[in-house]
Amino acid sequence: MFRKSMLVLALAGAANAVSAYDEKSLATDAAWVEQQSRVIAPDAVGLADKLWQWAEMGYQETRSSAAMQDQLRAAGFSIETGIAGIPTAFVATFKQGRGGPVLGLLAEMDALPGVAQHAVPQHSSIEGQAAGHACGHHLFGAGSTAAAVMLSRWIQETGTAGEVRLYGTPAEEGGSGKVYMVRAGVFKGVDAILQWHPGDSNAALPRSSLANKSAKFRFSGVSSHAAAAPERGRSALDGVEAMNFMVNMLREHVPDSTRIHYVITDGGLAPNVVPAKAEVFYYVRDSSAAELQPIWERVEDIARAAAQGTGTSVEWEVIHGNHSLLPNQALNRLLDASLRQFGGIEYSAEEEAFAKSLEGLATGPDKTLESAAQIADYDPSEKATPGSTDVGDVSWNVPTGGFRTATWVPGTSAHTWQAVAAGGMSIGHKGMQLAAETLTLSGIQLLREPTLLKKARAEFDEKRGDDFRYEPLLGDRKPPLDYRK
C-alpha cells in the first residue's frame, strides 16, 4: 500500500470534519473503488505514459485524444468528436436507464512548449522534442478517463439510472478549449462537473482563480535600410517597444490583483533592416471578468497610442479569455470527504531517493517529502489562486468542484522540468490513481444521492444571482487551432 490507513487519516482530520456524509457508505464504496482501481491501473498508467511521451500541444493532441477515446469506447461509451469545431475535442457518454443524474468529468490533454524532459531528477532535455507535460495534463486526461470507466462499471453493477460524460478538453494552456465548448452548449443538461489537477499536495479547497484574457498585438510599419535611409522607415518594433513601455507604466495604476505579462514573439530579423512587422503577445489577469475588462481596454488604448506615436499601424487577435472559477462548497466538501477515504501518497524507497535528489525544489515547513502523505485541512475561504483556467467558464455554467493530488514532489512548481520528470514516473502515477479514486467515489455519492446535487445547484444559483448572463471573454472568434504552430 502506498497510502496511509483510512483510520489514521480519519483521526488526523477529525478536527476538520466538514461533511455529514454517511461514513459507512463512503467506506463501503471506497473499498469497491480501490478494488476497481487496482484492476484499471495498468490501462490508466499506460495511457498516461503515452500522452507523456507524445507531449502534444494545444489543438494538436490528435494521438492523445484518440487514445483516450479508444479506452472509453472499449468500456462501452458512445463518442462524439469534433466538438465546437475543435478536431481533438470530444464527449464520451455512458448512460443507463431513464432519468437519473447527469455527471460530467473533465479531461485535459495538452502539453507546454519548450519543457521536454526525461523522467530523471536532474535537468535533462529530450533532444528534438518540442514540448513536455509540465502541467501534468497527461495525468489529468488519463486519470479522469479511468474514473469515468469505473463510474460506468458501478452504474452497471448497481443498476443505477444515470449518465456519465467524459469531456475531452484540448488546449487549456492558452487556447481556452473549454470556452468554445461552453459556447457551443455541450455542457447543457449536466447536473454537476467534477475535475482535478496535478499538483505537489493533496487538497480539495474551494478556490477561485484569476480571469484572464490574451491577444497578439501585431504592428505594421515601413521597411528601409537602417543606416542608409532611416528616415524612410517606420519601425514596427518601435511600436511594440512603445506599447511595452506604456504598459509597464500602467502597472503603477492598476489594482493589486492585476497581473500583466508579455513576450515579444516577432521583433524583426536583422538590425540593419527597419522591421516592417513585429508582434507582442500579452496576458492580462484580474480577480473577475468585471475587474479585468477595464484594464484590458486600457491596454488596447495603449496599443493604439503606440502605433500613432511611432507612425505604424496595429491590429490584434484575441487568443483566449477565461472567467474566474466559481467555487462550490457543496461539491468540494464531498470531494474532501472522498479524498480522506484514500489518504495521501507514500513513497517507495526508489521514489524517495528520486525525490531527495530532485533539483530546484521550493522547500519549507509544508513542502517536505512527508507532506505528500497528508491531506490539507479543509479551508472554506474562497480566495483566488494566482493562476487562470478555462474551467472557470465551465463553473459559471454548471456547478463545479475540483481538487489536487500530489503527482509531483512537494515543492515542485507547475510549468517546470521537475513537474515533467515526476509526471513521467511512478510518483505521478500514484497521484493520478488517487485522483481517479477520489473522482469515482464522489461521483458514486452524487449518483446515489441526488439531494447532494440539489444542494450544489442551490449554492450555484445563489452565487451567480438572478441577473447573471454568461458572456465569453473571447467573443465570437473561432478556435485558434494554429496558435501553437
UniProtKB/TrEMBL annotation:
Residues in the signal sequence: 1-20
What are the residue boundaries of the Peptidase M20 dimerisation domain, all occurrences included? 213-307
The family database entries (SUPFAM superfamilies) matched by this protein are listed as: Bacterial exopeptidase dimerisation domain (SSF55031), Zn-dependent exopeptidases (SSF53187)
Top-level lineage group: Bacteria
Which keywords has UniProt assigned to this entry?
Answer: Hydrolase, Signal
Return the protein name.
Answer: M20 family metallopeptidase
